[in-house]
Design goal:
The protein is mainly alpha-helical. It is built from 14 helices and four strands. The structure holds zinc ion.
Length: 325
């Protein structure tokens, strides 16, 4: 179960491609079944990593599209796997996957727009994740990203959505999950990304937030998500993408971060772990690869910091450069 002890100072692309391909062939393992509710997310993480590594064809396109379609509900939303409940997060993953495959017309887009816009609270502008009503800035990002990718931001109250996000801004320049909740790198990515999508970055306190973000880099080169926490490869994405949107990517030490992410690779079975020595998973694999892409690691396609999709996908949608600091 443990990862290999040898390390590599280059990205082991062939090994990571094989690792992602192998994930669907583990149906006889317990791990496969306990993560069933995450399956659609896993496809998005795996496919994005593959595309950035120039191997999008490593997963069969027809199979991917058919699987995504099988997760759509009559109300337009998507679930994490067939026969699970629909949720906003999985609805965004479905749209992202279909855009990578250039196959958005395979599903009922109007129904998706209806599903997402129905989740906005008309009074506060916040978004619920599903019919049960939990509110979180992650859902604000998911809704704005999803509708922007579908070019249907007109379906919601954008000024209200922005108003809610700004209520979640803290004195340190960061953002939390709800008003009053502490700043957290994942939530900062969501809020800064959401504001970028609707051309409202002027509302961000760029220098103050930039400092908070670059202070996330620890001596070993890795980044943490909050003060006093351990470094973690997935934060190389949440922190870097926010810094990139704010035009401050050069505020962190790129070489040290390269070293940290590459040292978290499994040099025997492929995949990237949260930190060196831990077990690899597809979540940390995509965010490790995306972080390296954002820093210009050679041989990778460029990633878009706002949509967390390969840049060429965003350009194909005609959405490039719609956000500027
Ligand atoms: Zn992590």
């Amino acid at each position: 179960m443990s990862s290999s002890t040898t390390t590599s100072n280059v990205l082991l692309i062939d090994l990571h491609v094989k690792y992602i391909q192998s994930l669907d062939k583990k149906r006889d393992t317990l791990e496969y079944w306990i993560t069933e509710h995450l399956r659609l997310a896993g496809v998005y993480w795996g496919l994005t990593a593959l595309d950035l590594m120039n191997h999008v064809d490593a997963l069969d396109r027809d199979d991917v599209i058919a699987y995504v379609k099988s997760c759509q509900w009559p109300n337009g939303g998507f679930s994490g796997h067939v026969n699970h409940d629909p949720h906003l997060l999985y609805t965004l993953y479905a749209v992202q996957i279909l855009l990578i495959e250039d196959a958005i017309d395979a599903v009922d887009v109007d129904k998706i727009v209806e599903y997402v816009s129905d989740l906005q609270d008309k009074e506060t502008g916040a978004f619920k994740g599903d019919e049960w009503g939990e509110i979180d800035t992650r859902f604000s990002y998911s809704a704005l990203s999803c509708l922007s990718l579908l070019k249907r931001l007109d379906a919601i109250d954008v000024p209200k959505a922005v108003e809610f996000i700004m209520k979640c801004k803290n004195f340190d320049g960061g953002f939390g999950s709800t008003p009053g909740a502490e700043s957290h790198a994942g939530q900062i990515f969501c809020c800064v990304g959401a504001l970028a999508i609707v051309n409202s970055l002027h509302l961000v306190d760029g220098d103050l937030l930039g400092w908070w973000l670059c202070e996330r880099q620890l001596k070993n080169g890795g980044l943490n998500g909050r003060p006093q926490k351990l470094e973690d490869v997935c934060y190389s994405w949440w922190v870097l993408s926010a810094l990139s949107i704010l035009g401050k990517l050069h505020w962190i030490n790129k070489e040290k971060l390269f070293e940290f992410v590459l040292s978290a690779q499994d040099t025997e079975s492929g995949g990237i772990a949260d930190r060196p020595g831990d077990m690899a998973d597809v979540f940390h694999t995509v965010f490790g690869v995306a972080g390296l892409s954002l820093l210009g690691y050679p041989g990778l396609k460029l990633v878009d910091p706002v949509y967390c999709l390969p840049k060429h996908v965003i350009q194909r949608r005609g959405l490039a450069e719609r956000y500027k600091v």
